[in-house]
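FORM 7B: Structural annotation worksheet

SECTION A. Query
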Amino acid sequence: MKNKIEKKVPHISGIDALYYFAQSGGNYDNYYENIIEQIEAKKEEFTALNYAYVDNDIIITINNIDVKYSGMGRDGFLWFNHEFFRVGFKDSEKSQNIHNIRVQLNAIGIYTIGLKSLVEYINTQLLKGSLLSTNYFPVTRIDINMFIQHNFNYLRKEMILSKKKTHSANIGERSTGYELETYYVGKKPFLLRIYNKIKELESASEIKREIMYNYFGANGLNVEQSIFNVEFEFHREFLKQYAIDTIEDALSRSQSLFEMGCDLVKLIDVSGLTDAQINSSNRKRADILPIWKYISTHYDNKEFMQITTEMKKIEKVTYSYSLEDARKPIKRQIMRLLIHKNSPTLLYFYELLQDVKEDYQLRQDIIKVHDVYVKEKQTFEEELENYSNYGLKEFERRLSKEMVGVMPDDKLFDELLHKYDAIDNELVRRGLKRVF
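SECTION B. Predicted structure
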């Protein structure tokens, strides 16, 4: 193993994740109530359609920004996903010892519009009207990292030396075949991860993979070669020991935090040690690996922190369930059919598509009729008088088909049955159906 690094190794210093609280203000309860009302309205809409929804089918709008509901977490927060971040809100009357708003920035947001721009976007746009004028944002976690053009596949546990005694029992690795994927050192509130970034991106979304490949290319890293991520994860319990409280504190001291991490955990060269020496205190006398010396002295995220995007250029992300979103669940169902020796044809999918479209249109018609009834105080029977003969027959056909999938104990069954009887009576009245 070489004693020193002969030349500059391509690398990028940065911040891979940032989690923080946002202190809520006097208008928060109204803010939270509006969120609850939107969730309930969406649920009622799906119920009216007789649609078996899941949490992430619910998309609400907060200050003109669309977010996708992902349910209530164990922490009591209602969590919402955005393409660039994740945000949680809780009832102000519950768990009063913690803040009401939590924010988690993700890699797509950070590497797309820049960390500072993303924080500003969330705090001034999404959360406007809910915060105190002090704008207090306590940091809860920051991941400070360096992407480096280096292959750590040779790494093994004996080469990891930590000043923290508890770390020796908290060193883990994950490999695929003979290829190292990840090394974990330590546990909350301070830990180190060294992992194969290119390998990780193989299973990432197409959008994230494209963003990261472009980011690497723009910063001189070759995605055709090994790129590892050296990442320190610092939590609030650790940060408070060094008087790091807010987002600004963490960002301004990110370089010193990274260097501190490299000092607390080192990678050593054990190539000149015997097995006995490796398993004794003599291991501490081994030289630091040249690549680790390089990493510990080359963190500089000044350029990374300058990546910003003007507020007016950040386009609103409007969520819709796309064809790409549907691809994976559809593929799983096809795979299940094939496993059970059923091979669906193109005709099968065409007929299925037509059935679903008809079912959806029927549900829309039912909602439309109901809305007209509420708005104009018309009875369903009066509304049916406006249908053409063809439209009335089509309505009966689709409603009859819809009722096949509804059980008698379902609260929707009585409503559908009432509508079916009304349609049947209207057909008889027009002489379009015989009474037996």
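SECTION C. Observations
The chain has two domains: 11-313, 323-429. The longest strand covers residues 11-22.

SECTION D. Sign-off
Analyst initials: ____
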